[in-house]
Sequence to fold (181 residues):
Amino acid sequence: MATKGALILPAGVALHIEEGALSIKHQGDIVIEGVPAQQLHTLTSEKGDVKLSCPDALSLTKVSAPAGTVSITGKVSMQSVEAKAVDFSGGSLKISVINAGKAINLNGSKIEADVILAPKVDIAAGLKGRASAIECGNEIGPHKLRGGFNLSEFVSLMPTGAAILRAHGIEVPSSEDESAD
Fold:
């Protein structure tokens, strides 16, 4: 981590204030090392990766990397992550929705999540916390997380389940899907 490094803004980077916090949009990679002085709102990398490495508490609304990987270490709190892949490799994460097009790797120490959605989800055996709904195409091995319902169960058990899915652009399973099981 740079202690007194230069701030370099590449051509095409977009910075603006949303709801009193800084939003960053860039075609390439975005790396946040530590907690900036200005609160963050959203980070969007159109074609690259996003790396959050924050030993102190970092709070933001959304991270998006549709063509890349979002890597998270440290103490992070946010509403949602959308990416091709998500790698939570250390620390604690509080989040409503993690949605990945390819894979999610959960290997931190603690997670509090409403929905985890990807074709492949790997959960470290020692990860503690809660994941209310986990929807994936692979078998998940033994883990210590509370919850772990599929999306249909999540919608039927949680009064706000359908609203959470809709707010993040996730198709809400119909009651017909549930009865087909």
